Amino acid sequence: MRHILHADFDAFYASVEQLDKPHLRGKPVVVGGSAEGRGVVASASYEAREFGVRSAMPMRTAQRLCPQAVRVGARFERYREISRDVMSIFRDLTPLVEPLSLDEAYLDVTVVVEDDNQPAKIAAALKRRVKDELGLTISVGVATTKSVAKIASDMDKPDGLTVVAPGEERAFLAPLPIRDLWGVGPKTAERLIAAGIETIADIAECDADWLQENFGKHGEQMQRLALGIDDSVVVVSRETKSVSAETTFAQDIGDPDALQEVVDRLSQRVAQQLRRKQLQGRTVKLKLRLSDFTTFTRQRTLPYSVQSAADLSQPAGELLRAELYGGRRFRLIGVGVSGFEQSEAHPDEPHQLRFAGFG
Q: Which are the catalytic amino acids?
């Protein structure tokens, strides 16, 4: 039997701001860009959430819901610093740590569990150490599977600790809404609700043939998870699938030269990440969002791998120019790379690619 923790900071960015700036404690805090610049909420303190403010909400909406909210700009270097510290604490407990983002991770603590050191005790001690050393709170879910532990960590925020005992997984999940289950997104939820399936118990008790007929293999997986069955393991290292950078404009842009300049700048940022990760890729991607919020991507797979900014910006620019017609104006551009090969060069050393340009 495995014992899994899902540990998640509470309102991470906003909590860090309140930690570093005592005058913000107890006040509604939102982290993100300005309303005038089409900013969005990256994090909202629990004081702000009481007014309905949520992450990913337009800052303009957040300020309308909570006029007294204090907006602060994001400080990602500081957040990464805290993230490194907490991941170090996690790895002191177990080497089996799977970071999901800066502020959350899975921990497999099976080898740490003993008769006098049960999972709930381990989780409580972990919460105390994070609070004592970092001054921040985490919520922890404890279960025998990753999917149940993830759901459990959200049950009693902030500063929560929810333990699902072995054998109680199905009963714990049963009354919860279907959207709480892994893999049930808005479209899947809409189809399930239309069929009268509203709780995780409904999925668990649903006819297996009907689920497979309507959702294929995904239907079978949903039912397994609804029954509390999840064999996925904590993955210590993840293979990088893509590297990208994007920017949202304060005002829509239609000028080709200005747009190309943005592509060049984003290509520089992506190239820096590629060098740092010692990666080179063959597929260059361009993400575009029009003034009416229509979002789409274009990509080109090259006959060779690229890593430099120049080799990224050229195909990305060609993809861009193909979309400049009919007076189109853009509010977002992103540049990305995938289809990686591992580079043997040190990230700080120049790397000679196999081909030096476009053929």
A: 104
